[in-house]
Structure to design on (448 residues):
């Protein structure tokens, strides 16, 4: 502020009414930006443009089937499978990214998908069951 | 052992006994296995067998299960063990055809091992069910029972002149598929059987049925035909499976396929209901739908040994 003031004083030696006022406005704008930046650091939601929010999506395991069988989600989504059958099921994909333990009734398992692609999976106890997650 | 003209009678016997009360007694006559019933739920003591029981098959004990269909699976396994221990002539072996536990949990394996240790037999052999390799790394079963097969899941041994082959068909399911043996295991089986006299009785045990019982529920093994190809030359082959919690039998030449009851809970017959889950029946009915299967080796092959048991 003092710096700004000194500049204003510098300019004020010239035609004051024309140059000092815009500079004062600039100074206030700068100050405002500083306050806003500080606010953003502490409270990120304040005045920020909406970015990709983290969403959670559910797949239910019912009657020996994954529902929905094919699910399309945006990158960054966490998918949660919940077993509603009284028979255990598991969720197993091609690699360790999708690899649950056996899920008893009402137990859940979650995976966060970052990389776009098509992820096929099944149940290690019931080979006829299959599902797909499409990440866009 | 001289062969006997027993095949026609054996088939008829199989048909009569396919309903099975609570278990099945197999009698090996002249290298040919003949089944007969073993009552369980009615509390009747098994009638004196006409030979020394070779082994008893138990299956699908599902320790850890605790829902309507049976809230006391440790109790029903305990009764199955009591039945075996009370046999007037006890078998030397017990073969467990898998689903020892329900969720592959460590505590479940502990409880199962404790119960199975009360069996008054020489050895207990196992093959895992899909419920036994359902932990994320699939390692819990092998930690406890992997030694016999060097952690491969398949192995063979000989007992009383019978060659036993334990196979594993619950790993590496492909989504939408059936159980599978895999090329490595099949190559091993081919090698294991090579050079053995075709008069050697063979017993194969694996969890999933080795023939297609019901494809929509995955009740079969995709590459079993190749295994059966190696077995076809033998004079007596008995394939024992579990998984479906009910007795289904099939005879194909010299090969008898037999699935066992569970000691935990029954499952619906193929296609009845949304899937192969636990079937709730009345408390009175339950014991009659659980059981064990006993296999007896007759040393006098000229006599067909058939024990007719009361259905419970």
């Amino acid at each position: 502020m003092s710096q700004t003031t000194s500049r204003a004083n510098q300019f004020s030696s010239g035609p004051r009414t024309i140059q000092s006022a815009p500079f004062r406005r600039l100074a206030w704008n700068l100050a405002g930006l500083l306050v806003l930046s500080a606010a953003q650091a502490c409270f990120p939601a304040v005045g920020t443009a909406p970015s990709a929010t983290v969403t959670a999506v559910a797949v239910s395991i019912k009657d020996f089937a994954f529902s929905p069988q094919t699910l399309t989600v945006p990158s960054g989504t966490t998918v949660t499978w919940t077993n509603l059958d009284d028979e255990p099921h598991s969720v197993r994909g091609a690699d360790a990214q999708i690899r649950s333990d056996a899920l008893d009734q009402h137990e859940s398992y979650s995976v966060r998908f970052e990389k776009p692609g098509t992820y096929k999976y099944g149940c290690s106890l019931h080979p006829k069951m299959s599902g797909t997650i499409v990440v866009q | 052992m001289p062969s006997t003209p027993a095949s026609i009678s054996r088939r008829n016997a199989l048909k009569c006994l396919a309903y099975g009360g609570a278990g099945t007694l197999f009698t090996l006559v002249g290298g040919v296995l003949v089944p007969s019933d073993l009552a369980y739920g009615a509390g009747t003591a098994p009638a004196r067998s006409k030979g020394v029981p070779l082994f008893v098959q138990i299956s699908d004990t599902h320790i850890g299960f605790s829902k309507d269909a049976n809230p006391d699976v440790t109790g029903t396994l305990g009764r199955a063990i009591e039945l075996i221990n009370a046999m007037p002539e006890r078998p030397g072996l017990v073969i467990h055809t898998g689903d020892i536990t329900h969720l592959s949990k460590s505590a479940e394996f502990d409880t199962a091992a404790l119960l199975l240790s009360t069996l008054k037999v020489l050895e207990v052999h196992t093959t895992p069910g899909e419920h036994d390799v359902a932990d994320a790394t699939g390692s819990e079963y092998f930690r406890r029972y992997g030694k016999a097969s060097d952690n491969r899941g398949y192995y063979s041994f000989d007992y009383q002149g019978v060659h036993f082959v334990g196979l594993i068909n619950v790993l590496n399911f492909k989504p939408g598929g059936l159980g599978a043996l895999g090329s490595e295991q099949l190559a091993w089986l081919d090698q294991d059987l090579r050079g053995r006299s075709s008069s050697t009785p063979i017993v194969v045990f694996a969890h999933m049925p080795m023939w297609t019982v019901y494809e929509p529920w995955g009740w079969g093994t995709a590459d079993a035909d190749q295994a059966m190809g190696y077995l076809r030359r033998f004079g007596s082959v008995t394939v024992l499976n579990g998984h479906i919690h009910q007795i289904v039998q099939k005879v194909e030449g010299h090969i008898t396929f037999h699935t066992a009851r569970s000691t935990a809970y029954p499952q619906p017959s193929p296609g009845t209901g949304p899937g192969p889950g636990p079937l709730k029946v009345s408390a009175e009915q339950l014991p009659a739908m659980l059981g064990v299967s006993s296999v007896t080796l007759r040393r006098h092959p000229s006599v067909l040994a058939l024990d007719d048991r009361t259905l419970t």
